[in-house]
Amino acid sequence: MKNRLIKSPGATPLYNQIADDLRFKIVANEWSTGEKIPPELELCMLYNVSRITVRKAIDELVREGYLYRQRAKGTFVLSLDDTNEKQHYTMVRSFTKEMEELGKKAETLSATVKLIEASKRVSKQLNIPEGSEVLQLRRIRGTVGHPFAYFITHIPYIEKFSLDNEDYYGSFYDYLRSFGIVVSESKEYVEATIATEELQKILKVPEYTPILKRVRMTFQSERNFHEFSECYYIGNQYRYYVEMNG
């Protein structure tokens, strides 16, 4: 039996209607945690729409944290507990974009890139074997003479990635996008801390300066590509905004 969709002019886009229906099935426990949802072609027949429309609906629920993909296996349902946590962190934005929204014009003051071997901690976050080659990027962001953020980023090394510091002065996500890597999902932790001696020197702040530490893990499930970043912001220079859904 086909699900009826409203296709009249001015109606909600079909992929949104499908996403709403799939979301209801998950919330209503019609599909249990870890259960594989019907394949895209079956959903196309169910809703009488194109595969592109079905894929957009699934992508929406992946971004919201209701579903997750496993390569060569299919799409599965996340637990509602995980969904409640993840739905607040579904939009991945670059630091450049965030600063624009805060009315600040930020630039990279310093960028240093090198190859290292993944430690146990980093390899776990990147989902790669310990000791694998990893690109480590350290950047200081701010305005001329006034640094206010320090980023330490790790990503799995791919030969086409540059090891020239000059190539990392722009938006990091724009750089990844140039290789067809578009991270669409993220998980973040934020905590308040105090500037260490290293951060005091890098950010040019006095002892006991409040620091906002933000740990970000992003990934593109289709390529199994992960990014692990630790970001440090001067407390009175950065405001963290979260929009809660539901």
Which descriptors would you attach to this protein?
alpha+beta, 246 residues, 8 helices, two-stranded antiparallel sheet, Arc Repressor Mutant, subunit A, six-stranded antiparallel β-sheet, Chorismate lyase, single chain
Structural overview:
With 246 residues, this protein is α+β, with helices and mostly antiparallel strands. It folds into 2 domains: 14-85, Winged helix-like DNA-binding domain superfamily/Winged helix DNA-binding domain (Arc Repressor Mutant, subunit A), CATH 1.10.10; 95-237, Chorismate lyase-like (Chorismate lyase, 3-Layer(aba) Sandwich), CATH 3.40.1410. Helix content is 28%, strand content 29%. The chain has helices at residues 14-27, 40-47, 51-64, 80-86, 95-101, 120-126, 172-177, 197-203, and strands spanning 67-70, 74-77, 107-117, 133-143, 146-156, 185-194, 210-220, 225-234. Strands 3-4-5-8-7-6 form a 6-stranded antiparallel beta sheet. Helix 1 (14-27) packs across helix 3 and helix 2 (40-47) crosses helix 3. The protein is elongated. The two termini are 31 Å apart.
